Amino acid sequence: MTERQLVFEDFSDKVGDVFPINEDGVPAIPMILKEAKPLNPAYGLPGVRPPFSLFFLGKDPRVLPQRIYRLEHQELGELSIVLVPVAKDAEGVTYQAVFN
What does the alpha-carbon distance between residue 19 and residue 59 come to, in Å, rounded to a whole number? Predict the structure, then answer.
């Protein structure tokens, strides 16, 4: 798993990419990165990366609980990201990850 600090630029060009969940005991739901957006720097901590937010769509009707999940990406490798379910519709469940 990656130990480096993730930044907005790691994700800004990956909208539309699939980040499958890869861990035992969790449904292998492919998470599609739907949006990556920088947040107001005033909400971040001084001297830390600028804050940003990611929205993933899980094309599955099951709602996963808020927690850290291990996702994979062909370029970024394995990532541990806290996902929070924020919406559900006919397409699936939208999850948000906030980095600040």
Answer: 12
